[in-house]
Specification:
mainly alpha, Growth Hormone, Chain: A, 75% helix
Length: 419
C-alpha cells in the first residue's frame, strides 16, 4: 500500500477520535450531567497535565527503546479502554480520573504520529516539509467528519460520543502495528553521556536562545488553543437561553458551525509550504498570533442571527490561527534537529503547547471567568470573555517579533512549493 495513503489513514483516525468528543464534551457535561463549571475546567486540565510529561516521556522511549509505531499503537489501545469506561461514570471526581487516564494515553500519540510520519517519509526519501501538510490535512478532515457524525446523530449531549471515539481508537491501535517500522536511532550513536543515558538530549535545546523563546511562545499559544476548545461550543449553546436565537441553525447544530474551523484548516494546511517559503517561520508564527486576535474578537461581537457572519468568519480564521503555529512549529523543530532526537524533540514541542500551555489556559481562564465574567445567576458575559482572550493574543503578537530571532530561517524558506 502507498506510504502516503497509509499515513493519511493514520491521521484521519487520529483526529477522528479527538473530534468525536473534544468540542461536544461541554454540552454533555452541562446539558446531560449538569455538573459544575469549576469541575469542567478540571476535566479540560487533564490534557495539560498529561501533556506536561507524557509526550516527552514517550518521545524518549521511542528514540531509545521501542519502535515508535508500536508504542503509538499501544497508547491508542489503552486509550480506547479508558474512553469506553467514561460513559459508565456518574461521579464528576471519578470522571476526572478516568479522563486523565485517557489523556495520559492519547496526548503522546499526537507527537508520536508526527514522529511516525516524518520517519516513514524520510526513510522513503520523500520531502517532509513539502509532502507532510497534504497528508496531515486528512487529520483535520477526520476531525470534521467526527463532529458531523456526532452532531447529525444527535449525540452532542450523549455518552455515545465516547463509544464512537473508543471504537476508532481501538481500530487505530491495531492498524498502527502494520505501519512502517520506526526503530530507535539513539542507540546507534554510542554516546555515553549522562544526558544521553537518560534520553534527555532534546532538553538541551532550551540552552539555545531561539529554541527557548520558541518553546516559551509555544506555551503561550497553547493556552489560546485551550480557550477556544473549552468554551467555543458552550458559547454557542448558551444562545438557546435567548428567545430570538433559540430556533436558529447555529443553536440547533453548534458542533457543525464549529466544524467550519476545521474545514478552514484544510485550506490553510495546504498553504503552509508557500507561506514558509515566502515569509519564513517567524512571520508565519506571527500571522498565527494575529489570527488568534481575530478569532476571539469576532466571537465577542457575533451572534446566531445578524452576527452569524462574524461567528463563521471567526471559524474561518481559526484555520490560520491553529495550523500556522502547530504544524509549522513541528516542521520547524524537524528541520532544526538531528533525526536521532526526533521523537523527544517533537514530544518537547507538544509538552509546551498541549502541556504547560493547556494547563495555564485551563486554570487561568477558569479563575478569570468565575471572578470577572460570571453573573449572579451563573450566566456568562461572553463578550467580555472573548475580548479579554483577544487582548491576551494581541499582547503576545506585539511582543513576539521583538524577541524571536531565527538565523536559520532559510532552512525552511528555501523549499519547493509544488506538490
Amino acid at each position: 500500500m502507498n506510504i502516503k495513503f497509509r499515513l493519511i489513514l493514520m491521521n484521519f483516525m487520529q483526529f477522528f477520535i479527538w473530534g468525536s468528543w473534544l468540542i461536544t464534551i461541554g454540552a454533555y457535561w452541562f446539558q446531560n450531567k449538569h455538573w459544575s463549571g469549576a469541575q469542567f475546567g478540571a476535566i479540560f486540565s487533564t490534557m495539560g497535565i498529561s501533556a506536561i510529561f507524557m509526550p516527552a516521556l514517550t518521545g524518549i522511549i521511542s528514540d531509545r527503546f521501542i519502535n515508535a509505531e508500536k508504542l503509538y499503537g499501544t497508547m491508542h489501545i489503552l486509550a480506547a479502554a479508558a474512553l469506553f469506561t467514561l460513559p459508565l461514570v456518574n461521579n464528576p471526581s471519578t470522571f476526572f480520573w478516568v479522563m486523565l487516564l485517557n489523556m495520559l494515553f492519547y496526548m503522546p500519540t499526537l507527537s508520536l504520529s508526527i514522529t511516525v510520519a516524518y520517519s516513514a517519509l524520510k526513510n522513503s526519501n520523500i520531502d517532509v516539509v513539502q509532502k507532510y501538510p497534504p497528508i496531515r490535512i486528512w487529520g483535520t478532515i477526520g476531525f470534521i467528519v467526527a463532529l458531523w457524525v456526532v452532531s447529525l446523530s444527535h449525540n452532542e449531549t450523549s455518552p455515545n460520543q465516547f463509544y464512537i471515539a473508543s471504537a476508532i481508537s481501538l481500530a487505530l491501535g491495531i492498524y498502527s502495528f502494520t505501519l512502517p517500522k520506526c526503530p530507535p536511532l539513539l542507540i546507534k550513536t554510542g554516546n555515553k553521556s549522562f544526558i544521553n543515558s537518560l534520553g534527555l538530549n532534546a532538553f538541551v535545546l532550551f540552552k539555545t536562545p531561539r529554541f527557548a523563546i520558541f518553546f516559551a511562545f509555544s506555551m503561550l499559544l497553547g493556552a489560546a488553543l485551550q480557550l477556544t476548545n473549552a468554551y467555543g461550543d458552550t458559547f454557542i449553546h448558551d444562545f438557546k437561553n435567548v428567545a430570538e436565537y433559540r430556533g436558529s441553525i447555529a443553536v440547533r447544530y453548534p458542533a457543525i458551525i464549529m466544524s467550519i474551523s476545521q474545514i478552514s484548516e484544510t485550506l490553510f494546511i495546504l498553504a503552509i509550504p508557500f507561506f514558509l517559503r515566502k515569509f519564513g517561520i517567524k512571520y508565519v508564527m506571527l500571522f498565527s498570533m494575529l489570527a488568534w486576535v481575530l478569532r476571539f474578537g469576532l466571537f465577542a461581537f457575533g451572534d446566531p442571527a445578524g452576527g452569524l457572519w462574524m461567528i463563521i468568519l471567526s471559524c474561518i480564521v481559526y484555520g490560520m490561527a491553529f495550523d500556522f503555529f502547530n504544524i509549522s512549529g513541528s516542521l520547524f523543530v524537524e528541520t532544526q534537529i538531528a533525526p536521532e532526537i526526533r521523537g523527544s524533540a517533537q514530544g518537547l514541542f507538544m509538552m509546551m503547547v498541549n502541556g504547560f500551555g493547556a494547563l495555564f489556559g485551563s486554570f487561568t481562564s477558569g479563575v478569570i471567568i468565575d471572578k470577572f465574567f460570571t453573573y449572579a445567576d451563573h450566566s456568562k458575559n461572553w463578550q467580555g470573555i472573548w475580548l479579554s482572550f483577544s487582548g491576551y493574543a494581541l499582547a503576545i503578537a506585539i511582543i513576539f517579533p521583538f524577541v524571536f530571532r531565527n538565523k536559520n530561517d532559510s532552512v525552511i524558506k528555501n523549499i519547493p512549493v509544488t506538490a
